[in-house]
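help with this.
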Amino acid sequence: MDTNITQELKVGDKFPLTIKRIGINGEGIGFFKHVIVFVPKAVPEDVIVCEVTDVHPRFLNGRIHKIRQASRFRNPETPALADKVGGLDFAHIKYEDQLKFKADILRESLEKYKPYAYEKYNIRPTVASVQQEKYRNKAQFPIQEIDGEIRCGLYKTGTQELVDLTEMPTQMDLTMSAMRKIVEIVKDLEIPVFNPKQKSGILSMIVIRESVEFNQLQVTFITRSPKFIKEHQLIERIQKEIPEVSSISQNINKEDQGAVWGDETKLLWGDEYLQEDINGYIFNFSPRAFLQLNSLQTDKLYDLVNQALEPTQRDILLDAYCGVGTIGITMSETVKHIYGIEIIPEAIEDAKANAKLNEVENADYYVGSTDKIYPELLKDGINVNSIVVDPPRTGLEGSMITTLNRNPVDKLVYVSCNPSTLAKDLVRLAERYKVVYLQPVDMFPQTPHVETVVKLVKR
């Protein structure tokens, strides 16, 4: 590597660059005088003029100043919004090529962490999404007063600058039209909206979740104080003007930065839950409960989890990081018993309600962190022989991997939403488990995100 070149270059310098591959975050990667260059929105086979945006001792960050020769993978019909807001980081790539690059991102992650025998892993072709657009069933729309005008939409990529949106290619139509109607009602009623400069106003975000099966909407207003001015008029207008809304809640979050949600959520009107159908089972979701963003593809994802686990009536299944119980409940008829663990108390309440709703009697649920509760179940003599883990983006806790390795089960399925933490976790899991295959699944078209179902068996 020519490290001197990074000392010679400065921000704003330009040079020609051919993009060679995709990086683990979906950016294009090229090499300038043997130094690696990361370029967002660049695609393999692009020939570009790259402008330096950041200089590091061992690598460069750049942006596309000009495309000299467009890659054959480029989408000629890229939506205009792709350069304005987040959530469309792969929209400049043709869909069939997005699928190939998602498998490449998985390979890149494995090459970085090098779990045992990773070169021989069977990485299957990425499963396409049922819908490539208008698939997102939920959106969190910040709403702000800026220079006397109310804006509601999404932030400009990498900034806190709010872009007012009337459409979004990945968002369902009903959600978008409801959001715009709510914004008009908020304006009419002159409800105080958050002003980032003055740190004033009450309403800071509108969260909408949509049920595909039942064509209903769950609306949550995130406010900066418990007091919600003109709450009753707002509810009346929504009931009248957006009949699909079945539930309205308020969440209180006094912080301007950090987490979207505060600790307190209260139902203002309507149903406590939004219902959705997953593989013939009905599930209740409270406003903060986790549901995969792509409802139609969730059926397919759970089918693939089922295929990887191959459940039988002898199986005692641990549904780890179970959320509201969706994966375990969809397997309840094919296993002997389910033990679900989840750290969020409301999610476990939802899971118990969902088991009851679906007349599932062979499931027990526990609140707490999986790495602490699972060893306690083992101490109590519960002989789990199959496990599904569906951890957050951070992956499995080190102590959980230790427990899995000390007490290896016949069948382990890892559902991952982050290839990097998956690859890192497989380094240790591969000591006691053989990786049979990795199945990438496209849950998030037009983005570099990829879900992966990994089938592992005891060595």
The radius of gyration is 24 Å.
